[in-house]
Amino acid sequence: MDFSNLFRHETETVNFSSGETILKCGEMSDVMYVMLEGEAEVRLGGQVICTAQTGTLLGELGLIDHNPGCADVIARTDCRLVAIDKRRFLFLIQQTPNFALDVMKVIAERLRAMNHHAMESLGNR
């Protein structure tokens, strides 16, 4: 799911240099991000589980359920992102139902991937 088109005209962006931490496991965040440019590694326990690229959502779970982040996100290259706070997120899901559905699809895809990974891990015991 590529969210970058929705925010392509955004003038207020956040920049992270290669190697900088975007989100840290165990820390609260009051925003989620949409990656406009660059790549970042998503890490669990120091292990890279996926690469976030243009259009990727980051930190959406913490914004939705008010819990600390569950992964580290480290900029692999210089990155430009849009920060979306709770107020703007609620506005977007109320005014743009397809945005809400797309966020749910992303969460569902990630849950299925984690379930698949867990099943593979259990099968290798």
Automatic annotation (TrEMBL):
SMART domains with a match to the protein in the record: cNMP
Entries under CDD domains matching the protein: CAP_ED
InterPro entries xrefs: cNMP-bd_dom, cNMP-bd_dom_sf, RmlC-like_jellyroll
Domain of life, per lineage: Bacteria
Segments forming domain Cyclic nucleotide-binding: 12-93
Pfam family, one: cNMP_binding
Protein name: Crp family transcriptional regulator
Organism of derivation: Sulfuricella denitrificans (strain DSM 22764 / NBRC 105220 / skB26)
